[in-house]
């Protein structure tokens, strides 16, 4: 239910953390810290696997989800970007171990860098994440029958866990991934336009997860099986048998962001902990609503890992009323890569142009300069989210995505040290 009284709106100057190297703190907790590393991070953003070492993220993570592997029309797994995944050579300066890739070596690309990362951090677990917004078109076909499910899972385990990459010797990438992360967006609900969806996706997703669990258990060693789950309770009910799913999942990550964004004309929060007073939109979207929905449907607290954003959504042409909150706009704000969305590290560099506002009751912040509005998840909000996760005794935090942080890892540091 929405709060009737208005939360405190406080303008605040941001205290900028030092740019010195930040040592990893042991938070003395069993909470998971899961981060998505995308295979496109190394292009325009120039955020390499080695940057996870340089900014302290690798030492604070319990798991990396490498995004994304795709599923083709026949239900087989494939690399979405072979060059980035296993072909690109890295220089000594770019690499995790400080050594340049040599001509003719078997494995290059991000996978070789992840292999080096695991050698440096032996407790770090890495899963291949399958699907995502642009890679979920054929999940429904892959999950349709017992035979299609079995063939799909075999294909994915062969490619990613057994490491049988096209054009390379058998097992060239074996042992890099210790699990599968399923990012089907979304069973029985349209995600990216053109995705195949069926009413029976709900039951078929449960069966697909169970097939993964069965085939993973036949492999030597321990393997994680996780899933990315939506925030919207209506989508949960259409596409997910929550209690049954969690029997086979190691844990699941919840969508803790994109509650609102520039696909709407009205400015709003994108990752509030609770529904803010005065929000003219319905239904309410907030982390509280999402977490309560999963708990009510039988998800164990210890297996719920709440998502947090390392990026912002923005609008421009915003009416200068209520510090820009809940106001009409003329469209998405200009940004570095995708209009209306900006990585934290890029937006922080523009911070002098904005005033920071916080709703301490609902738990979110935003920036406004009189015409342009950005949602804002900074170290203060990461601390708030970590404290919420700890207070509700959830399984941990998940980051989308690691390339959004600063060179000294200030967001993951604030998140990590406040998980209890």
Question: Care to describe what's here?
Answer:
The chain is an alpha/beta fold and 420 residues long. It has one domain: Glycosidases (TIM Barrel), CATH 3.20.20.80. Helices cover 27% and strands 19% of the residues. It has 13 helices and 16 strands. The strands form two sheets. Strands 2-3-5-6-7-8-9-16 form an eight-stranded parallel β-barrel, surrounded by five helices. Strands 1, 10, 11, 12, 13, 14 and 15 form a seven-stranded antiparallel beta sheet that branches. A hairpin with a 4-residue loop joins strand 13 (355-359) and strand 14 (364-368). Helix 6 crosses helix 7. The longest helix has 17 residues, at 201-217. The chain is globular. It starts with 8 loop residues before the first strand and ends with a helix. Residues 1-27 have low confidence and may be disordered. Residues 1-20 form the signal peptide. One of its GO terms (molecular function) is hydrolase activity. This is chitinase.
CATH architecture: Alpha-Beta Barrel
Number of helices: 13
- Please outline the major beta sheet: 8 strands, parallel, barrel
Radius of gyration, rounded?
21 Å
Q: What portion of residues is helical?
A: 25-40%
Mean pLDDT over all positions: 94
The CATH C-level class name: Alpha Beta
- The total beta strand count reads 16
State the separation between the terminal residues, measured CA to CA. Answer: 28 Å
What structural category arises from helix and sheet content? alpha/beta
Q: Overall 3D geometry?
A: globular
The fold-level CATH name is TIM Barrel
Protein name: chitinase
Catalytic activity: Random endo-hydrolysis of N-acetyl-beta-D-glucosaminide (1->4)-beta-linkages in chitin and chitodextrins
GO molecular function: hydrolase activity
Signal peptide: 1-20
């Amino acid at each position: 239910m929405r709060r009737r009284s208005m939360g405190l709106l406080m303008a605040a100057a941001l205290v900028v953390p030092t740019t010195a190297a930040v040592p990893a703190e042991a938070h003395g907790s069993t909470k998971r810290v899961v981060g998505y590393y995308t295979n496109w991070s190394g292009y325009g953003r120039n955020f390499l696997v080695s940057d996870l070492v340089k900014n302290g993220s690798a030492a604070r993570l319990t798991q990396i989800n490498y995004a994304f592997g795709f599923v083709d029309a026949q239900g087989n797994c494939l690399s979405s970007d072979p060059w980035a995944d296993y072909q690109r050579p890295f220089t000594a300066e770019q690499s995790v171990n400080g050594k340049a890739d040599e001509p003719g070596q078997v494995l290059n690309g991000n996978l070789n860098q992840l292999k080096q990362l695991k050698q440096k951090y032996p407790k770090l677990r890495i899963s291949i994440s399958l699907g995502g917004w642009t890679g979920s078109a054929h999940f429904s076909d892959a999950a349709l029958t017992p035979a299609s499910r079995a063939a799909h899972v075999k294909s994915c385990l062969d490619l990613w866990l057994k490491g049988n990459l096209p054009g390379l010797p058998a097992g060239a990438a074996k042992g890099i991934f210790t699990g599968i992360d399923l990012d089907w967006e979304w069973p029985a609900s349209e995600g990216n336009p053109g995705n195949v969806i069926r009413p029976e996706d709900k039951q078929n997703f449960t069966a697909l997860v169970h097939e993964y669990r069965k085939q993973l258990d036949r492999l030597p060693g321990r393997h994680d099986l996780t899933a990315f789950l939506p925030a919207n309770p209506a989508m949960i009910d259409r596409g997910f048998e929550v209690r049954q799913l969690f029997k086979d999942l190691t844990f699941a990550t919840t969508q803790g962001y994109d509650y609102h964004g520039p696909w709407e004309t009205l400015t709003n929060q994108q990752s509030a902990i609770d529904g803010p007073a005065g929000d003219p939109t319905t239904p309410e979207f907030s982390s509280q609503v999402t977490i309560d929905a999963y708990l009510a449907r039988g998800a164990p607290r210890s297996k719920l890992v709440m998502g947090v954003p390392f990026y912002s959504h923005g609008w421009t042409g915003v009416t200068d009323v209520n510090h820009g909150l809940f106001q009409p706009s003329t469209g998405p704000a200009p940004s570095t890569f995708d209009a209306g969305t900006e990585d934290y590290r890029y937006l922080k560099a523009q911070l002098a142009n904005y005033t920071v506002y916080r709703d301490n009751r609902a738990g979110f912040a935003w920036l406004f300069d009189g015409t342009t509005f950005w949602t804002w998840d900074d170290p203060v909000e990461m601390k708030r989210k970590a404290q919420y996760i700890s207070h509700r005794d959830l399984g941990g935090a998940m980051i989308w995505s690691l390339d959004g942080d600063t060179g000294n890892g200030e967001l993951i540091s604030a998140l990590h040290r406040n998980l209890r």
